[in-house]
Write a structure and sequence with these properties.
There is one protein chain. The chain has about 130 residues and is mainly beta. The protein has one domain (about 1-130): Calycin beta-barrel core domain (Lipocalin, Beta Barrel). It is about 10% helix and about 55% strand. The chain contains two helices and ten strands. The protein has a ten-stranded antiparallel β-sheet with strand order 4-3-2-1-10-9-8-7-6-5. A hairpin with a 2-residue loop joins strand 9 and strand 10 (about 125-130). The radius of gyration is 14 Å and the shape is globular.
């Protein structure tokens, strides 16, 4: 269930994120901010079944609200306008973003009480780990 993801999560480690941002086409200045940012990830679910995922940094806060398996338009923190679908698959929240003929996948799962986000673009993989605040 999505409920295990609900709460406030703080980024504790980030591996290969700069390479991932490069792979999805993020410019240098935005990457520098992205590498410095230590986002809090706030996940909640409302009574109507909408999931809210909010990323809060000192630079900016972005929020997406969605229903599982329903496509929506997302404007990402780095300014991409994507068609996004998030599904719940084998205990993972799998987010697929499509734009300009490209696709990236973000898989979030809970392991040992930590939330890991695996960001995949072609053969580039970044892993970001969050702990419950």
């Amino acid at each position: 269930m999505v409920e295990q993801f609900v709460g406030t999560w703080t980024l504790t480690s980030s591996e290969n994120f700069d390479e991932y941002m490069k792979a999805i086409g993020v410019g240098f200045a935005t990457r520098q901010m992205g590498n410095m940012a230590k986002p809090n990830l706030v996940i909640s679910v409302d009574d109507a079944g909408f999931v809210s995922m909010k990323s809060e940094t000192t630079f900016k806060t972005t929020e997406i609200k969605f229903k599982l398996s329903e496509e929506f338009e997302e404007t990402t923190a780095d300014g991409r306008k994507t068609k996004t679908v998030i599904t719940f698959d084998n205990g993972k929240l799998v987010q697929q973003q499509t734009w300009d003929g490209k696709t990236t996948t973000l898989e979030r799962e809970i392991q040992d009480g930590k939330l890991t986000a695996k960001c995949v673009m072609d053969d580039v993989v970044a892993v970001r780990t969050y702990e419950k605040a």
